[in-house]
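Objective 1.3, modelling of assemblies. Example input:
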Amino acid sequence: MHSRRGDLTDPEFPQTSVDEDRYADGINEKEGAFGYMIRLENLSKIYRMGDNRVVALNNISLSINKGEFVAIMGPSGSGKSTLMNIIGCLDVATEGKYYLDGRDITSYNQNQLAEVRNKKFGFVFQGFNLLPKLTALENVELPLIYAGVGAKKRREEAIRVLKMMGLGERIHHRPSELSGGQQQRVAIARALVNHPSVILADEPTGNLDSKSGMEIMEIFEELHSRGNTIILITHDINVARYARRLITIRDGQIVSDEEVEMQ
Amino acid sequence: MKFTQAIKMAFSSILSNKMRSFLTMLGVIIGVTAVITLIALGQGSTQRVSSQIESLGTNLITINITGGRNRGVSEEDLERIKSMPGVSEIAPVLSGGVTVKAGNKNTNSSLEATTPGYQQVRNRHVQLGRFLLQNDLDMRFRVAVVGVDVADELFGRRDIVGEKISINGVEFSIVGILEEKGSSIAGSDDNKVIIPLTTGQRLLRNTEVRTFYVSTQSPDVVNQVVGEIQRFLTRKFNDENSFRVFNQTQLLSTINEATATLTMMLGGIAGISLLVGGIGIMNIMLVSVTERTREIGIRKAIGAKRRDILIQFLIESAVLSGLGGVLGIMLGFVGVSFLSRILNIPAAISADVVLLATGFSVAVGVIFGLYPASKAANLNPIDALRYE
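Predicted structure (tokens):
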């Protein structure tokens, strides 16, 4: 058994972690038409550059359930990053509707979107995007600061999640003192610490060697098995295979949406 | 996000770039130091001038009879004035320049021939010997009370009670030495010889008293007494332009106004340097926002609201300039004590100047931080995240 997985299956993990219920809730339940966690209807994103219209997303409809592990694949420029940005409320669609937990968030303002990002999503980026001057612990505490959690609780939560990621010894290290794989695990800890509904990972293994990349993917697999909803953006089919559902996107349109056969 | 957390964040950001933070603060430090030092020195010299004037007595009224011949005031007039309500003492003065000699040394001095009341009216007391007595006037004794300058000049020492001097060739014996007063705006008050009025009338060959001082029982009745005296003298001379009545309160308020204007001007000039310091802060904050675009993007992605970013940068610039203000105040204290010693001006930093400087420097930080902070807060999270 791999050491990272050893950390995740640490006996402490199930008790301290996160209300199990919240993550495990309705994993296998098929919900009604409006019961989906994420539901996009005829979504389009059009950029205007001078007189040119660039259609980044063209009339996309998509539903994702609680507990799914979805990979979105496509070549660069296919619109997959735009799609992730819109799902993650970093960007807004030009047309169409976006329902999150049954609520239409198409018309949310910047502040409401910030709150949605804070409460509902955990981001994992290709370049880790940790704040270089903060320690691992402080980085993981950030989402809780913006959620208004008190200092003591914040620290406890952050340490718990970092331990879960096998970084208990390194909580006071700065990102520059950590390896790529460790940095990405800090980033995953930061994404998890606020108990998000969805983890959005954009090429999480893109900057890592294959061994660290595998470790990270195993973490995602473990998180999925614990009931977390994960959306993974990648152009690497080997990474995409970890997911259970594979959506391929090209020129701003979904070209296939299929289940991944278990390896 | 909580406020204390925001302040912690601001401090760690300022400390992570110490040299730059210090240089940015320097503008505010210099500005605040300048404001505090100049205002303290200005207020110090105002206070000194005021206290000099006050030491002459705020309840002092000076009357000069002008124009015409044979128009002095008589002893009866002075008695009448002395009996007016509110008047506590009166002192007629006959003055002139004289040459004072002792042995083979001589000096030019100002002579005042007066009555014992002078001591109280003009607030001049003796440090050695005694002042004039009524008996000296009645008997026309040739006695003199001298200022310390005269003593130093003629004898080189101050314990000269009993020594003889000659004033314009007439011999006088010294009965008292005046307390040292220092020089005022009107020249040295210590180069002075005081003799009995009656003796002086003979010496100066002049019996016409054209100057007299009145002291009131309290500063509050000065205006009332001035009115009485004016009415009395107008009736006596049948001409309201033949005399002048001054009081110290008028002089004091005129001088105070002038020095206060000067102080404000100095403070204003120093305030401009504070403004320049504020522009320096804005400049660095703008650079900082650009440098930290990616950080802002990350913070926004994990849930920082527009307000959170705005407050973060505002607090950072307010702390930066507030800290500069505190350092400037400390430097100001050093500068004031140094300059007041060198320039010999008694300067005290008043609490309201310190509060004003602190408040002003924090306000400078907030005002000049507003634009950079709102620029940061309005960044689009995706663009900010892509920024390299």
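Residues 198 and 388 of chain B are 98 Å apart (CA to CA).
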